[in-house]
Amino acid sequence: MQTITMAFKAIWSNKARSLLTMLGVIIGVISVTVLVAIGQGTTASVTESISAMGTNLLSVTIQTRRIGGGRNSRSNSGAKGTVILKLDEILALEADDTIAAVSPTVSGSLTVKAGSTNTTASVMGVLPAYAQIINQGVEKGRYIIDADVDNRSAVCVIGTELAQTLFGNTDVVGNTVHVDGRRFRIVGVLESKGTSMSGSSDETIVLPLTLAQRMLESTSISSFYLSAVDPDSVNAAQEVVERFLYKKYQNESTYNVMNQTQMLETISETAGTMSLMLGGIAGISLLVGGIGIMNIMLVSVTERTREIGIRKAIGAKRSNILMQFLIEAVVISGLGGLIGLVGGYALMKALEGFLGMPLEMSAGVAQMAIGFSMGVGVIFGLYPADKASKLKPIDALHYS
After folding, report:
1. Strand bridging mode 204-208 / 195-196
2. Which residues contact 219 (CB under 8 A, 6 or more apart)?
3. Which of 48, 140, 152, 399 lies at a C-alpha separation of 20 to 30 Å from 128?
4. Where are the alpha helices (DSSP H) in 356-399?
5. Adjacent-strand bridge partners of 189
6. What contacts 24+ positions apart, CB below 8 Å, involve 164-169?
7. Stretch (H or E) spanning 399
8. d(CA 306, CA 304)
9. DSSP β-bridge partners for residue 227
10. In the beta sheet, which residues pair with residue 102?
11. Domain definitions of the chain by residue range
């Protein structure tokens, strides 16, 4: 306790120098905590967006491929020699025990107008099952139904942000909009989901698949979504789809089947690597802070050489001197770590609103930051403390 008291007194007697010495550790801890929190927050946000669509989701993208027709053959999807995927072929996949629902999709951008307000919006044509597949609900009204698809009904479901842009509010069920000059009746407003990797459904207008194909002049199907009956059946459902597509196209490079579960695993691995990288980069500033501690402690040893000599002359052991200077280094780095944690937490809260996502300081990160800062104090304080403890009393007393 006497050694600890002497260490605190020595730090307090040089407040400005001690604070400047801590500054490197403070900045290092703030950097580590904030960067790791941003990495973890980004991961959580992306994972939540993907998980909201369901872990039993599969998405298929097809690159339409021509198998003949000569150099003058037309390149559109209906050209002779083109492998065309038909709607009834895709819907036949629902007969498999592992697949719960299937919906082809067609998308593009068209001009949407309401009154004097017009904008270019993302238009998507789907079947009613699409809402179930991606867990998309409606805030008001209803979704697309089978009768809309069969009759090519001029109805639509609109995203909340697009409704706000066009009408100034989201109570728009029953109103009409013009999509590419054609009049549509709004039958529902999509549940707000925010922005995900596939874009924002809040700025989308959903039409019946059959009518959207005609308006977007897309007669072939180049993408579709399906859901497995449960998360345990995802891999089996993927095998069924891949067998079907290979039989159709005879070329694996023609299509891509994306498994939502695999995507989550890949994102988690990538995010973990990114967090480690960010933490490592920030940790460099902690090492710089440690070098600063070592430099100041060496100066302190030089300044207090006579004090060390007197203490040794009246019976202080080498271990007493070593412990005194080591404790000073650890206290400086430990205080710097605590101040850095407080500063990092305050900065995270300030950045939450700017980044638009929650940032949390996990207990593991806080413990790591404090532990690392204390470790820096021990490692970089050991040499100056050892040097002080090895001074001979006679040489120390002669020092001026």
Report:
1. unpaired
2. 77, 78, 213
3. 48
4. 363-389, 393-398
5. 140, 158
6. 165/117, 165/119, 166/112, 166/113, 166/114, 166/115, 166/117, 166/119, 167/114, 167/117
7. none
8. 6
9. 57, 101
10. 226
11. 2-49+266-398, 102-226
Q: Measure the CA–CA gap between 247 and 245, rounded to whole angstroms.
A: 5
Helix 260-303 and helix 305-313, axial crossing angle in degrees, nearest 10: 70
CA distances from 115 to 112, 168, 182, 190, 350 (A): 10, 12, 13, 21, 41
One-character DSSP codes across 317-348: -HHHHHHHHHHHHHHHHHHHHHHHHHHHHHHH
Query: How does pLDDT run across 313-365, given as a tens digit for each residue?
Result: 877 787 877 887 788 888 888 888 888 889 888 888 888 777 777 777 777 77
Using DSSP, state whether 392 is helix, strand or coil.
coil
Backbone angles phi, psi at 254, to 5 degrees: -80, -25
Edge-to-edge order in the sheet of strand 57-62? 99-104, 223-228, 57-62, 255-259
Contact 128, 149 (CB under 8 A): yes
- Transcribe 29-42 into DSSP letters: HHHHHHHHHHHHHH
DSSP per position, 78-90: TSTTB----HHHH
Residue-level pLDDT at 232: 80
Other CB atoms within 10 Å distance of the CB of residue 386 = 15
- The token duo for 168 is 């100034």
Name every residue whose Cβ is closer than 8 Å to that of residue 274 and which is 6 or more positions away in sequence.
39, 43
> Do residues 270 and 50 lie in contact, with contact meaning Cβ atoms separated by under 8 Å?
no
Integer Cα distance of 44 and 362 in angstroms: 13
- Residue carrying the six token digits 């900045």: 27
**b/e map 351-372, b = 16+ CB within 10 Å:** beeeeeeebebeeebbebbbeb
Q: How many Å apart are CA 351 and CA 104, to the nearest integer?
A: 40
Is 274 or 159 the better-scoring residue by pLDDT? 159
User: What pairs with residue 106 in β-bridges?
Assistant: 125
pLDDT of 125 strictly over 90: yes
What does the buried/exposed string (b/e) look like for 119-154 if buried means 16 or more CB atoms within 10 Å of the residue's CB?
eebbbbbbbbbbbbbbebebebbebbeeebbeebbb
- Reduced to 3 states (helix: H, G, I; strand: E, B; else coil), residue 183 is strand
Write the CB contacts of 240 (distance below 8 Å, at least 6 apart in sequence).
93, 96, 98, 99
